[in-house]
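Appendix C: a fully annotated inverse folding record. The material below is reproduced so that readers can follow the format used throughout the book. The structure is listed first as C-alpha cells, followed by the designed sequence.
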C-alpha cells in the first residue's frame, strides 16, 4: 500500500502574485451577469486564478471587491486576477465583441451546444457569460452571444450553482485549449 501525504505549500510551487500577473494568460474572460451571491463571485475569482484566465468582468448587481464576503471565498484572487465593473452586461459583451472575442453564454436554451461537443479553437479569445442564480443569463445578453453552451445534467435538478458551473466549464475549456 502506498503511503500518501499532503504536499506543503512550498512543495506546490505556486506563483507569487507578481509572477502570476506577469504570466501568459489563457485568452478567456469570465463575465458575471447580475450574480447576486458574493461567495459565488469570490469562487469565480478563485477559479479564474487557478486556470490563468485573462480577467473577470463584473456586471450589474454583481458586487465588486473589496468586500469581506467576496474575499472569504476568493482567498486573495481578487488581488491577482484582473477585473472590471460594467453597469450593464450588454456593455461588457459589446466591448469584448469589438475586441474579437467569441461570446459564449452558459445557459439552457434552444440551439445550445452540449459542453462535451463544444470545440474551442486555439488562438481565439473567448468570453464565458454566467447568469444570475435565479434568472440565468439575461435575454438581451443572450441575443448578443455567438454560442450557448449547456452542461449536461442527468438528475432531477435543472441547474447547477454558478460557482460549480464556472469550475466545470473553465476546466473543460482550459483542458481543450491546452492539449497539444
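Designed amino acids, in order:
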Amino acid at each position: 500500500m502506498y503511503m500518501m501525504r499532503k504536499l506543503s505549500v512550498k512543495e506546490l510551487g505556486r506563483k507569487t502574485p507578481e509572477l502570476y500577473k506577469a504570466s501568459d494568460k489563457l485568452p478567456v474572460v469570465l463575465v458575471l451577469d447580475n450574480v447576486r451571491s458574493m461567495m459565488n463571485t469570490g469562487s469565480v475569482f478563485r477559479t479564474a486564478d487557478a486556470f490563468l484566465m485573462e480577467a473577470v468582468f463584473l456586471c450589474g448587481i454583481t458586487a465588486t471587491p473589496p468586500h469581506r464576503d467576496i474575499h472569504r471565498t476568493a482567498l486573495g484572487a481578487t488581488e491577482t486576477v484582473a477585473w472590471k465593473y460594467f453597469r450593464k452586461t450588454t456593455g461588457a459583451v459589446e466591448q469584448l465583441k469589438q475586441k474579437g472575442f467569441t461570446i459564449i453564454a452558459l445557459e439552457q436554451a434552444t440551439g445550445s451546444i452540449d459542453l462535451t461537443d463544444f470545440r474551442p479553437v486555439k488562438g481565439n479569445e473567448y468570453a464565458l457569460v454566467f447568469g444570475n442564480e435565479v434568472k440565468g443569463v439575461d435575454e438581451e445578453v443572450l441575443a448578443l452571444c455567438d454560442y450557448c453552451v449547456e452542461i449536461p445534467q442527468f438528475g432531477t435538478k435543472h441547474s447547477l450553482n454558478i460557482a460549480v458551473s464556472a469550475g466545470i466549464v473553465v476546466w473543460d475549456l482550459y483542458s481543450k485549449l491546452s492539449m497539444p
